[in-house]
């Protein structure tokens, strides 16, 4: 997968920030960070590496053609019809040879992703001092460029199609899997391409257990169905949730739904630059606590989204991060009561100069039909 054009601005920001940390060069090996910096998302089968020593990055990748990426790419053979290719040794040889030609072994600290560094990269690093640049990359990713925001908007639009399909398909007598199939079809057609697609699809007594994949459970009247969708379009995720009542809602369902709506709105009003993530969490939780349901809200109140479905900031009591213009995040209050069911509502927002812009456009409403 490649983006429409190279993304030198993110590469340059990383290069400058790494230099400020005293990092003379970097070896990036995780697919998501390679994608973030170059627009190229390596496949699962063939390792790829981004070498950074100067203003001219070098990508080492399997295959033969990755248009629209960095100007300098060195390829290694990762498939042949004539013989079996063992990709990891091939990638290791290509990395070592490229690093030698590129001069990556020069003196000075080298930036790496400690938790994603393959053992066969050791000859490249030698005895050089290593600096984990993962926290730096995560901090840079928290602020989304306009093209990143546009990709997330596209993903959010796909979730609207999925929720509309869920509302229509979620009727008594069908299974969670049947509803899931309708949602998946709608999302793929809305995206206009194959997409990575995941979420929570739970009904009835499964709904108060928070989430999980769809099952062959048959839905019944007066049950709740949580539809939490997180597709990725163009390499960027969205994450929105709606909860529907199947075949009519009980009074207790309406009570939980109203609490979740109030909590979501209270959290939205708290979203503005300079506010700490933990303070947004406390606003969401306060709305639920005032309704007497604090013990039924067991998870985070939201999180950032981007090239991964969960990014910084995390809307939890322990996150001191300040919200900044350009962050894109979710809010997702949920209340789960055994014997009644679970309700979770979630929308996505872009932090702006004067607050937050909601970018999810699918309406709320408890009744499925």
Q: What would you say this structure looks like, in words?
A:
The chain is of the alpha+beta class. It folds into two domains: 8-141, Creatine Amidinohydrolase, Chain A, domain 1; 146-358, Creatine Amidinohydrolase. Helix content is 33%, strand content 22%. The chain contains nine helices and 17 strands. The chain has helices at residues 8-20, 31-38, 87-102, 122-125, 134-141, 146-169, 176-191, 251-270, 277-290, and strands spanning 25-28, 49-52, 58-62, 72-76, 110-112, 130-132, 196-203, 223-233, 236-237, 240-246, 302-304, 311-314, 328-331, 334-337, 341-344, 347-352, 355-358. The strands form four sheets. A six-stranded mixed sheet has the order 4-3-2-1-5-6, with helices on both faces. A five-stranded antiparallel sheet has the order 12-11-13-16-17, sandwiched between helices. Helix 8 runs antiparallel to helix 9. The longest helix is centred in the middle third of the chain and has 24 residues, at 146-169. The two termini are 38 Å apart. Mean pLDDT is 92; it is low at 1-7.
Question: Summary?
Answer:
By secondary structure, the protein is α+β, with helices and mostly antiparallel strands. It has nine helices and 17 strands. A hairpin with a 2-residue loop joins strand 8 and strand 9.
């Amino acid at each position: 997968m490649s983006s429409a054009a190279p993304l030198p601005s993110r590469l340059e920001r990383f290069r400058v920030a790494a230099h400020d940390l005293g990092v003379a060069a970097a070896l990036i090996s995780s697919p998501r960070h390679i994608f973030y910096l170059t627009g190229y998302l390596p496949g699962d089968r063939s390792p790829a590496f981004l070498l950074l020593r100067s203003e001219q990055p070098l990508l080492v990748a399997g295959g033969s053609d990755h248009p629209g990426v960095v100007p300098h790419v060195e390829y290694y053979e990762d498939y042949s019809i004539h013989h079996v290719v063992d990709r990891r040794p091939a990638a290791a040889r290509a990395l070592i040879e490229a690093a030698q030609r590129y001069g990556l072994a020069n003196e000075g600290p080298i930036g790496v992703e400690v938790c994603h560094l393959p053992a066969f990269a050791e000859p490249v690093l030698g005895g050089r001092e290593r600096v984990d640049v993962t926290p730096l990359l995560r901090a840079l990713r928290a602020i989304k460029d306009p093209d990143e925001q546009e990709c997330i908007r596209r993903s959010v639009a796909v979730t609207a199609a999925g929720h509309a399909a869920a509302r229509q398909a979620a009727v008594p007598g069908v299974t969670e899997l049947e509803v899931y199939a309708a949602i998946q079809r709608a999302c793929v057609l809305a995206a206009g391409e194959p997409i990575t697609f995941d979420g929570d699809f739970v009904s009835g007594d499964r709904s108060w257990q928070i989430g999980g994949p769809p099952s062959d459970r048959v839905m019944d009247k007066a049950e709740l169905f949580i539809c939490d969708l997180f597709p990725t379009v163009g390499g960027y995720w969205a994450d929105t949730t709606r909860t529907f009542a199947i075949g009519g809602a009980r009074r207790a369902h309406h009570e939980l739904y109203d609490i979740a709506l109030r909590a979501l709105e209270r959290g939205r009003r708290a979203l503005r630059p300079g506010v700490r993530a933990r303070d947004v969490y406390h606003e969401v939780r306060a709305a639920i606590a005032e309704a007497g349901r604090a013990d039924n809200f067991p998870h985070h109140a939201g999180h950032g989204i981007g090239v991964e479905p969960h990014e910084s900031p995390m809307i939890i009591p322990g996150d001191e991060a300040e919200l900044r213009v350009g962050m894109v995040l979710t809010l997702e209050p949920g209340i789960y009561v055994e014997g009644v069911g679970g309700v979770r509502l979630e929308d996505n927002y872009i932090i702006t100069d004067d607050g937050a812009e909601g970018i999810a456009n699918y309406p709320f409403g408890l009744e499925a039909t």
